[in-house]
Amino acid sequence: MLGFEMTSSGRDKTGAANGLQKHDTNWWLHRINLASLISNLEEELIDRDKAERIIKAMREVESASEKGELPKFNTYIHFEPEILKRAGMDCSVMHIGRSSQDILATVEFGLNKERIAGTIEQTARIQKSLCDLAKREMGKVVPAYTNGVQALPESYPHYVLAFARAFGRETERFAQCFSRYDVCPMGAGVLNGTAWPLNRTRIADLLGFDTPSENAFDAGQIAGNTLPLELSQIVVSVMTLISEFLADFSAQYHHSYPWVVLDLSGSTYVSSAMPQKRNPGFVNDLRRDCSFVTSEAISWLFRLQNLPTGMPDERDEPLINELFKDVKSVLSRFDRVVNGLRVKEDNALKEIASDWTCTQEIADRLVQKGIDFRTGHGFASSLVSWARAQSKTPETTLYEEVCEIWKDFLKEKAKMPFPMTEEEFKAALDPRAIVEGRRTDGSCSREEVEKLLKLERSRVEIAHYFVKRFAESQEAFLREQEQSLKALGVGNE
After folding, report:
1. What is the DSSP letter of 149?
2. 75: CB partners within 8 A, 6+ apart
3. In this predicted model, what pLDDT tens digit does every residue of 198-247 receive, in sequence order?
4. What's the Cα-to-Cα distance from 392 to each of 62, 374, 383, 388, 396, rounded to whole Å?
5. Architecture of 102-197+212-347+455-471 per CATH?
6. Which of 367, 363, 297, 368 lies closest to 330 in space, CA to CA?
7. 408 pLDDT higher than 90
């Protein structure tokens, strides 16, 4: 869990998302036992009397766990004795062809499928919120920065949709990781399979997996370590992305007249000593927690360092469970930030006008007049150096002064007049015109931004469909277990 006391600004009050992770190890142990039992009955590997006793015992144990009369089990070696205590030792036949290794691996795979689907639900929600933000602030021009310095005028929706695309990539990575978890280890045995004629395809179907795992050794000895490592590193990537976005916002918040603000109740607190000071507590807490979650996720690498194959640890499951609880909290609060952002375009345009943010356009337009780019670039750079030395902004620089600087810059070519008219020069410094002039694929003109927005919304729908299909598959395998029991005529008392 998050290692710091959450402030009122940082505490997650939304109760949002990640509702797909409803189960724990105990729940999955019962589902695995039931799937094995059904398959063994269908294959006539166990007699009906034993099956009835096992089912009755399982239901008693599950009920007792839910009532708190028994613990919720997180290991099979403690779970099985409770079943056999009620069903009889002869019912230990249910474990033939199985091992705690493939059972534990199946539990882990089932739980991580739930965690991934819940996280995809949240990252897709953030993608949608970013799309909504882009739509809400459509047409607004702001300064963009490189190395922390004003670089070019930018469409704010274009900037926001860049982060939407980045979150989309994280969603896609989670989905790819999900597919690697959607294989069922049951039947892998300890490491090399089993001579007991299990129907692994049927067991996989009864547990909601797409297919049995391909290699028994991998299923129980390797994948249980490397797949959580992959999953944890996607988490690191997501936290880094959120941190970058928040760092950009924080840089604006520190300005006396920021052009992007957070309209979110309770997001700031008053300094204990300075009455005028409003500290961005919500965002600061969120940035801190991004770092903490990153440290949690990276620790998975160190847990696996220098381990031989086949060393699963029941302590791993609570740790990864806590990690994803913290991921849920961070994603939920970040979504609130995105929904609370508002652009003050007047302040943005004032910041652009206060410096030579549009200067690249001068060089580009000189090229259109037949001047080579390096000459155009050099002149524009000289113009900026002169203007800053004179405390001149684009608004206070006279056209005649620009023409004189051109003559000084050319020196031996002094007879060539400045190729741009006064109107052309002023137009080159118009941030809106610059933004609208970017018309290549993926650029920041309104037409291109509208295309990007439409494309990103379609990807959000694909993610929502993925989550919907997973929820349906969970319900389907539970129905399949119930219907199979009825068809077999067992467990109907």
Report:
1. E
2. 25, 100, 104, 314
3. 999 999 999 999 999 999 999 988 998 899 999 999 999 999 999 999 99
4. 77, 24, 10, 6, 6
5. Up-down Bundle (1.20)
6. 297
7. no
